[in-house]
Design a protein that fits this description.
alpha/beta; about 270 residues; 5 helices; ten-stranded mixed beta sheet; UDP N-Acetylglucosamine Acyltransferase, domain 1; single chain
Length: about 270
């Protein structure tokens, strides 16, 4: 079903809420990918789409609790029932406790291992693997052919509406138990080693280019956990150090061999 995005935006700007029919059209536009909570500018910068996030918030503000048909029972806002998939959607959801809210775009070819949770407004591109115990937060954007390894936490954000959620671009490989939060951008084909915790204020040290990065991991960078000495006499006396993510190289043939995705799984 074709959705008139401009009309939806105008209706929400005028009323600050949707009627039942427009709300369903809004959720369908999010799920199809015709509408998203993030957009890429001509300068390569990712930004939030505030009106979309405000519209999602309006569903929570409407209040109420509804019983949803779900194994074990579910009680949530009426605006956000669990998302149901059909075989023709091309999404493979392995049994065992996975849940996605309405308003999450999950493209054909995505594989979701249990248990995982995908929140409203999230946007997951084709061919991505969402492994066990993964959380994809509200409005986070995950690109095409991304691998989110077991235990990965991808931060989302609904408020403030102008705040950018986490963006993981095409082909990135996120190692097990990584946490990526507060609007950081992981650029195309980057590789994060297991256990990294990154936010947009994390300083990342690039041994290859001899520079520092904040707010993003550059394209094709391979990032591993590291440490740097903490400053001050107190820290020096006690040998204290701080987390320091380090770019040790950019993707090469050796990296490709270790992170290549298996098409048969998709």
């Amino acid at each position: 079903m074709s959705v008139d995005i401009a009309r939806l935006e105008a209706v929400f700007a005028e009323r600050g809420a949707f009627g039942a029919e427009d709300w369903e059209a809004f959720l369908q536009a999010l799920e199809s990918g015709d509408l998203a909570a993030t957009c890429l500018g001509a300068d390569g910068r990712w930004d939030a789409v505030p009106w979309v996030k405000r519209a999602i918030l309006s569903g929570f503000k409407a209040g109420g609790v509804a019983s949803h048909d779900w194994p074990g029972g579910a009680f949530d806002r009426p605006a956000f029932p669990p998302r149901r998939f059909l075989a023709e959607d091309g999404v493979r959801v392995v049994p065992g406790g996975t849940s996605a809210r309405r308003g999450a775009r999950i493209a054909a070819g995505v594989v979701i291992m249990p248990p995982s949770y995908i929140n409203v407004g999230a946007n997951i591109g084709p061919g991505t693997m969402v492994d066990s115990h993964v959380l994809v937060g509200s409005c986070a954007r995950i690109g095409l052919g991304v691998h989110l390894s077991a235990g990965v936490q991808v931060g989302g954000v609904l408020e403030p509406p102008q705040a950018r959620p986490v963006v993981v671009e095409d082909g990135a490989f996120i190692g097990g138990l990584c946490g990526i939060f507060e609007g950081i951008v992981i650029r195309k084909n980057a590789v994060l080693a297991p256990g990294l915790i990154l936010s947009k204020s994390t300083r990342i040290y690039d041994l290859v280019l001899g520079r520092e990065w904040e707010g993003e991991v550059p394209e094709s960078a391979v990032v591993v956990p590291g440490a740097r000495p903490a400053r001050g006499d107190f820290a020096l006396e006690r040998g204290l150090s701080l987390q320091a993510p380090i770019i040790v190289k950019y993707r090469d043939k050796g990296t490709e061999a270790s992170v290549t995705l298996e098409s048969a799984l998709r």
